[in-house]
Each structure stands twice: as structure tokens, then as C-alpha cells.
Amino acid sequence: MEARVVAFEEFAIETRHRLARIETRLDTFVTKADLHQELHSMTWKLLGGAMSVASALVGIVYWIARNIH
Question: What is the value of pTM for the model shown?
Fold first, then answer.
């Protein structure tokens, strides 16, 4: 009976160490809120760049329409 108790205590210690390692790894993962915020900022950066290109193209077409006969 004593050997079984010792085995369970050793198992509990090993389990505690393994859980501590898992918790440490989980702290480095990205949360859903972090992912949402990053996707939101990337979307606006992409749209901002696309709007700049679209504005430049409209300006070029306007210039061509006014100056090329």
C-alpha cells in the first residue's frame, strides 16, 4: 500500500510540472481579441492603400481626358 501512495505522490508532482509547462506555453498564444484587432488594422491598411491607388488612377484618367485630344 505504501508503494502505491509513493507512486501517486510522484505522479502528482510530475503532473504539476507538466501543467506548469502547459500554462507557460498557453500564455504565449494569441487570443481571439488580439487576432480580431490585428485583422481589423490590416483591413484598414489594405483599404487605405487601395483608395490611394484608386484616387491616383482617377486623377490620371481625368488628366488624360482633359489634355489629350
Answer: 0.44
Q: Return the half-sphere exposure (C-beta side, CA atoms, 13 A cut-off) of residue 64.
A: 6
User: Are 37 and 18 found together in one domain?
Assistant: no
Please give the angle made by the CA atoms of 18, 22 and 27, to the nearest 5 degrees. Answer: 150
Which domain covers residue 61, as residue numbers?
Answer: 31-69
Same domain, 37 and 65: yes
Straight-line distance from the first to the last Cα atom of the chain, in angstroms, rounded to the nearest whole number: 102
Residues of the chain with pLDDT under 50: none
Coil, strand or helix at 30: coil
